[in-house]
Amino acid sequence: MVSDKNEWINELIYISYRDLPLQTLLKNLYSFFSIHMPLSYLTLYRYQDGTITKIAMHTNYKGLFSSPDVVRIPDDIMQALHLDTTNSGALYQTRICSESAGYPYSKVSKMLHPNPGTSIFVPLDYFINYGELRYLSVFSLGECSYTQDHVELCETIRKPLGAAVRDILLMGEQKKGEHREHDRNSYLSDESQGEPQTFRSLDEHTADYIRQVIKHTNGRISGKNGAAAILGLPPTTLWSKMRKLKISSR
Fold this sequence. Notes:
Elements: H1 5-17, H2 22-36, E1 41-48, E2 51-58, E3 70-72, H3 75-83, E4 95-98, H4 104-112, E5 117-127, E6 132-141, H5 148-187, H6 202-216, H7 227-231, H8 235-245
C-alpha cells in the first residue's frame, strides 16, 4: 500500500499522460495551466552540446507566436553560464526566467522567445552520460507574470510529467524504427541481400535506461536521490516496472 498520497497523484498523472500523442499532452497541459496562471504558449525543448532544439509547441493563439526551431548558444554565453554562481544546480530546479534579470540564462531566454515576456523553466529529464536535457518552457507575455505559487504548481507535476514525456518519445522512436524497417524490407525484396535488420523493443530501451539510472544511484530505489526520484516515478511504480522487465536493483 502506498503510504504517501502524493505518490497516488503522481502515478495518476503519469498513467493519464503516458499514452497520449505529444501534441495532445501539451494541449491538455495548456488547458490545465491556463486555469491557474497567465499563459501564452508551452514549448518542449531538448538541450545538448550548446544547442537547444524545439521538440513540440502548443498555443491557443495560432499565428501570433513563433520561436526558432534550433538555437545555438554562443560560446561567450556558454562560458558565462558555467561561471554564473546563481546558475548552480539550475538543471534540476523549476524556476522563473525573467528576460530583464541580466543573468546569462536571461539572454538564452531572449533567444528562444522573440516576444518580450517571462517564462518558467521546468526540467523534465537530464541524461548525465550524454549531457542532454529535456525541459518544458511555460511562457507568458509581459514582465513578472509568474509567482512562486506558479513555480510550485509546475514543480508538483514535474516528475510524473517528465516520466510520461520520456515514454512518449521512446515510443515515437520505436515507431520510426519500425517504419524505417518496413521501408527497408520493401526495398530489399531479394532475400539474398541478407537478414533484415531488427530493432529493439521499447521495453528493451526502457530496461536499459532504468538499469543505467539504478547503477548511477548504486542500487538505491527510494529516497530523495534514489532511482525513482530521478526517473520521476513513485517507488511502487518503479518496482513494478523492474519486476516486469526483470531488472535487479543490484
